[in-house]
Input
Amino acid sequence: MAEFQEILSRFYSIFPWAEDPYSREGRKRFEKTLKFMEQLVNHQWLRNLLSKRKIIRVLEICGGTGIGGVALAKILMDKSINVYLLITDLRKEALNIAKKWGFEVLSKEVDTLLIDAREVHKLDCKFDISLLYGLSTPHFNPWDIVKLFTSVNEVLVDDGLFIIDEGDRRYTLLTQGYKHVLAEYSSEERFVVSFHIGYDFVKGSIKRTYVDLIKQTKPVTMELFMWGLAEVAALTWVFFEDVDLVKLERTRHFIIGYKPRKILTPEHLSEPLVFNRV
Output
C-alpha cells in the first residue's frame, strides 16, 4: 500500500490536474464544481433526503484536496442544512490541503482520513451520502470497483445515496482514437507526455507512463481502466435499488445510486483464483 501511495503522489505531481484550490486553475474548477453541486441538490432524491434529516453526513472517497466534498457541503450549508464532512484519500499532502481549504470555505472543521476507498466499510460511522468526485473511476479496474461498491454499500444508511462523477471515456476513444503517445499538457514551465506501455488482460487495465520533459521528473507508470458511462451506471444498479443520471457537460454526468441493496458484502469477496494464476 505504501508503494502505491508513493506512486499516486508522484502521478498527481506530474499529471496536469487542477486540484490545488489556491491556484487560479483550482479556484476555477471549484467555482464550476459549485454549479454542478447546485444541479445535484435539486434532484428529487436529494430533496427527499434533505427533508428528513437534521444533519447530513457526507463521505467523500478519493477526495484529494476536497474540492468536490467542500463544494457540496457549501451548497447544502447555504441552504441552512447542517453538514458533517469526512474527506478520505491515500495522499496525506492532499488531505492536508483539504482540511485547511475546507475550514476557510465552510468556517467549520472538516475531518480527513487516510484510507483506501475499498475499505471505507471499516469506518465506525454511517453516512447519508458517499461522493466520488473528480472523474476518479479509472483508478479502479472492474475487480476493484466491485470491492468499492460493496464497501460503499456497507457504510451508507438504508436510504443513502452514492454520487459518482463520471465521463464516458469509451465514447472519446471511439470518436478520437487511442493515442499511444499523448501530449497531456504544455506550457512554458511544463510539458507532460504519456506513453502506452502495456495492457493487463485480467484486469482490463492499460498501463501508461507519465513524464514532464521540461522538469525532467522521474517517470511514473499508472494502471488505468477506461470506463464508459453505461457500464458504471449499470454496476451502480446492481448495488442500488435505483439509478439516475444528472448531465453536467458533454459526456460528463453524475451517476446517482439510491438505496443500497446491501446483499453482497466485502466479506464475500475473497481473492479469486484467477489472480493466483497470474
Observations:
- The chain has a mean pLDDT of 95.
